[in-house]
């Protein structure tokens, strides 16, 4: 099996590519500027040249906050861009794994959303990911949609490094106490994606490290694990500058098929991230 990874310089994509290489699975990574999701013909050419048996599609528009003022751009990448990758998968006969998000749900209440819960995105980013999921489901039968969120790791664009730098400078960080999710270590997510893509366990799955944390609680855990002297001040999202349109309830079930290892706890994952990568001293 040969695997093409899009977004291979990004946070989850770089760990996926690294793991494929470590396992000796034939693979190729692509990212911007070589890959341009808005240029369909160049995507088709790139995929046809790579001739993969499977595509793990991690490239896309990722800033939920900035997406509010750039809805067309966000939809062009996550909606149309994913449709283009799905079309390319059909052309070469590849299966496709699409990395999505629980932000496709309304994000209200406090119970976790299951894989078959109804869509109802709260913001532009969530809408664009619904478009991406629809594109994959309508064109392919051999697909995996894997939802994950608050992904952190070692790739370009990771949120831990800027957060720690800000923490060292300001000594106090205001973080939302009412946004709750399962922060997920990209290396753990990569293992699920690479294991899953080798199977025929098609459908929609939910991958997350175990446990629910508010942004403020996860921030406190990060400060503790990295020994960063910074106080976390829990605040309501509505009191944060810019009032980001964020769904508050990002709790979702962890649902993986039999044969795929369950994911470790959030605390275990963060401990490994901090010690493995030696990023934060
Ligand atoms: N991070 C999260 O917590 C999270 C949550 C939910 C879902 N996801 C999904 O996971 C995937 C990876 O997201 P990420 O947040 O981890 O982002 P990331 O690390 O920034 O990875 C996304 C990659 O896509 C690339 N890209 C941007 N515009 C492109 C274009 N026009 N053509 C080709 N590639 C382009 C980016 O390149 P540049 O850096 O050069 O722009 C980047 O390398 C996305 O599908 C995202 O929706 C992530």
List keywords for this structure.
binds NADP nicotinamide-adenine-dinucleotide phosphate, Rossmann fold, two-stranded parallel sheet, 9 helices, 281 residues, alpha/beta, 12 strands, six-stranded parallel sheet
Protein architecture, described:
The chain is built from 9 helices and 12 strands. By secondary structure, the chain is α/β, with parallel strands linked by helices. It has one domain (3-213, 243-277): Rossmann fold (3-Layer(aba) Sandwich). Helix 1 (11-22) links the parallel strand 1 and strand 2 (27-30). The longest helix has 22 residues, at 71-92. The chain is globular and about 50 Å long. The mean pLDDT is 95. NADP nicotinamide-adenine-dinucleotide phosphate (NAP) binds at residues 7, 9-13, 31-32, 35-38, 58-60, 62, 77, 99, 101, 149-151, 155-157.
Q: Which ions, cofactors or small ligands are bound in this entry? A: NADP nicotinamide-adenine-dinucleotide phosphate
User: What is the N-to-C order of secondary-structure elements (H for helix, E for strand)?
Assistant: EHEHEHHEHEEHEEEHEEHEH
Strand content: 15-25%
Structural class label? alpha/beta
Low-confidence stretches: none
- Oligomer state equals single chain
CATH architecture: 3-Layer(aba) Sandwich
Task: Going across the biggest sheet, name each strand in turn.
Answer: 2-1-3-4-5-10
Roughly how much helix do the residues carry, as a percent range?
Answer: 25-40%
Largest beta-sheet characterization? 6 strands, parallel
Helical element count?
A: 9
Number of individual domains? 1
- Give the CATH superfamily: NAD(P)-binding Rossmann-like Domain
| End-to-end distance | 39 Å
- CATH class, please? Alpha Beta
Give average pLDDT, whole number.
95
Shape: globular
**Cα radius of gyration in angstroms:** 18 Å
